[in-house]
Amino acid sequence: MDLNAVRMLVQVAEARSFTVAAGQLGLSQSGLSRAIGRLEAELGVRLLHRNTRNVSLTPDGRQFVDHCTPLLCGLEDAERRLGDRPCTPSGVLKLTAPSMFGRKVLVPLAGQLMAVHPQLQFELVLNDRLVDLVEEGFDAALRTGPISDVRMVARPLRPLHWVTVASPDYIARHGAPATVDALQDHTCLAVRNLRSGRLVDWQFRDGDGLRDVTPPARMVFDSGDPLVEGALAGVGIVQVMDFAVADALADGRLQRVLQPFEGRSRALSLVYPPSRQASPKLKVLADALLAGQW
């Protein structure tokens, strides 16, 4: 079996396009198509559905790629070891992440990794746009919620938890709410979902379930990034993810309120194409994120 053709198949499966994969591999589109056609003939099965818009794996193709990808990664690792080539993380690691997580967690973490690995560089795209990792040349992404793209590897990280916080100055002036309903008597800062036009609900534990509450907001933002600054300035109460206020809670600039009612969480994953699985630079990032020291 031609291992190069197997590698080409994996690249086409990730890109969902002969044109994109050919450009990434430095091959002609026709040459790439012929190589995979020969692989299909050798195996006696159709591996790809082809149409004028894109390509996708057949069920047999998906099974074949799922089994072959770890083997290819192992072969690449073995090749590096036999060649006595160092597995030192080096080069540019291109990542995308939600804005606040990127600023609060990823930037400091990247700085720590660069200090340990001088040959490592980062290119960070910090926004909430859902990028196509393969087509846009990203090594990995930090994504929240369920991962629907079956082409990608998704490694679960520590889930994100929401906390409700206010500054000591605000609490001294207005007191802390003792119940969720008591929020009606307080100044709350919230975010408007620009697609739906509605305020983003806050969520609290209510018995064995969760309760959505539309905050009585006196100040509304178009994104969650300014919430922490508003809370630190003593403007009002906010509900944000725990990583965004970890430092402010640790040094006392913010305090948790309604702590017995906390319960909202969301999955967080490091997502990357299977072809990046053996990358030393991605491995050091994954190890640091999995350590959960953030």
TrEMBL record:
CDD domains tied to this protein: PBP2_CrgA_like
Name of protein: LysR family transcriptional regulator
InterPro entries: LysR-type_TF_proteobact-type, LysR_HTH_N, LysR_subst-bd, WH-like_DNA-bd_sf, WH_DNA-bd_sf
Gene3D superfamilies: 3.40.190.290, Winged helix-like DNA-binding domain superfamily/Winged helix DNA-binding domain
PANTHER family the record matches: HTH-TYPE TRANSCRIPTIONAL ACTIVATOR TTDR-RELATED, HTH-TYPE TRANSCRIPTIONAL REGULATOR
Lineage per the UniProt record: Bacteria, Pseudomonadati, Pseudomonadota, Gammaproteobacteria, Lysobacterales
Keywords (A to Z) from UniProt: DNA-binding, Transcription, Transcription regulation
Originating species: Stenotrophomonas nematodicola
Family: Belongs to the LysR transcriptional regulatory family.
Pfam families, per the entry: HTH_1 (PF00126), LysR_substrate (PF03466)
Residue intervals of the HTH lysR-type domain: 1-58
